[in-house]
Amino acid sequence: MAHSLHSLVVVLTVTRLVDCINYQQLLLRDLFRNYDSDANPGGTGNELSAKGASVTFAAKLVRVIELNERANTIQTQWWIQQKWINKDLSWNKTKYGNVTVVYVDPKRVWTPDILLHNSVRLFDSAADDDRLSGSTDKYKTKIGIYPDGQHYWLAPAMFKSVCDVNTRFFPFDDQTCTLQFGSWAFDSSKLDMIFDRNESGTSPYQMNTEWELLAFDATLKYTKYSCCQYPYTSVLLEVKLRRRFYYYMVNLVVPCSLIAIMVLLSFVLPPEAGERISLGITVLMAMAIFQELTSEKLPVESTHTPLLAQYYSSAIAEIGLAIFATSIILNFHYRKNKMPNYLRKLIFSFAGPIVGMKKYKDLARSEKLLRRGQERANGTSNDNEHFKKGNNCELKSLSLLQNDLIACEKEPRNEFQRGKNHSSIRETHILEDSEDNSADQEDKGDNVEKELADIYAKEWQEAARILDRLVLLVAIVVCICTFAAIFIQAPRVQEHLFGDPAITEEQRLLLRRK
């Protein structure tokens, strides 16, 4: 008995399923018996009041896949929803077993030719690239048809569209990309678009690691062309993005700043080390190589120079100026001639107090004393020369009697000879003392010149030390001011510093709209 009841239940269930399948097949056969998919569901009205199909369009942003600054393109994923009514495909559900919906292939029914106008590839026959085209062929999902003739088409799609990227404030930039959807063949008298805000939004949005979604908005646009009587309807989807700058700060800005700061070490190294110029040139080459390596990541922009490119160029220029200043300071350090008075006054009286450095000792006073000693030495030498010239005859006689003087020292002959010998010996001592004094004065003159040269050299070295500190302080200030002046141009930086909101409350509400 139980077996018989089970068999009866199975038979009734199978019969019901067969009847249901037969109803759907019957419905589809009746719907498409005399149906032409090219026929406009709204008829062929000639007046704007006799509109054709009204298509309700909605879009939900799923994710931002890529924004290519160099190619000025953006790749996004959307859920596209389209609804319209086609009375030619309506039925009485009571006649077809209460079938409330059927799903058909898009090729079997009329579909609106709503395309992405600013797509990179509007039509593409290649199977691999069709997913990025802007045509309706990319929609592979079935269309749901309801008894009142309403068509519901929900399809996920990826688009690659043109985006006017402005990289002036890179990497602190905000970008606004617009996607324009509209009919290509039908004007508003044949196909009128209605945007459904309630079904649009960013509820399924998935976060992008490089771009932050700031706002999403949509507007309905009517465009009148000279070829046609009625305007064309289109929907503009506006996506506002903000770049996440942490990656670029860590990988591009910070290394560049560290390389630029290293050139300041050339003003700290002692000149005797002989590595100051080589350090500057090494830093300059490293900066140039780093800029070349990172140029591929920088967007190509002819109308505006990105902030990061401005900073690179400024850093290279500052490194070149630092090498130039180092060359001048080294030239000062190894000089030994007398410093011009105007330069001495400029460095020791003006620049020295600014950097908190004074003369190591009173070089001017020491130079004055040495000059006075040199003048005295020159005067004594002239007196000796006068003495030599005035007593030339006596000196000659002394030299003639030299041999006799030597003999007299051994054995004097008489009183007269002894007196004469004593006089000659005294004059000989005077001559010897005069020659010794002249030699001493020449040695003193040489020593004075050496001491003067040492004083001059120390004075130049002291000036080089002052310039080292002055240029170091100026370079630090210039580096900080350059960094601040370049990057403060970005509105995003101004927002963080001065609290200027870059996104309105209305835009935030749009982001939360489901």
UniProtKB/TrEMBL annotation:
Q: Where is this region: Disordered?
A: 417-447
Cross-referenced Pfam families, in alphabetical order?
A: Neur_chan_LBD, Neur_chan_memb
Task: Spell out the Basic and acidic residues composition-biased ranges.
Answer: 417-432
Task: Please indicate which superkingdom the organism of origin belongs to.
Answer: Eukaryota
* Membrane-crossing residue ranges in chain numbering: 245-265, 277-294, 314-334, 470-490
One MF term from GO for this chain?
extracellular ligand-gated monoatomic ion channel activity
Signal is among the record's keywords: yes
Instruction: Spell out the subcellular localization from the entry.
Output: Membrane
What keywords is this UniProt entry annotated with?
Membrane, Signal, Transmembrane, Transmembrane helix
- UniProt-listed InterPro entries: Neur_chan_lig-bd (IPR006202), Neur_chan_lig-bd_sf (IPR036734), Neur_channel (IPR006201), Neuro-gated_channel_TM_sf (IPR036719), Neuro_actylchol_rec (IPR038050), Neurotrans-gated_channel_TM (IPR006029)
Q: Main localization of the protein?
A: membrane
Question: What GO cellular component entries does it have?
Answer: membrane
Specify the protein's topology with respect to the membrane: Multi-pass membrane protein
Q: Where would I find the Neurotransmitter-gated ion-channel ligand-binding domain in this sequence?
A: 25-244
**Annotated signal sequence range:** 1-20
Q: Which residues form the Neurotransmitter-gated ion-channel transmembrane domain?
A: 252-486
Q: What protein is this chain from?
A: Neuronal acetylcholine receptor subunit alpha-10-like
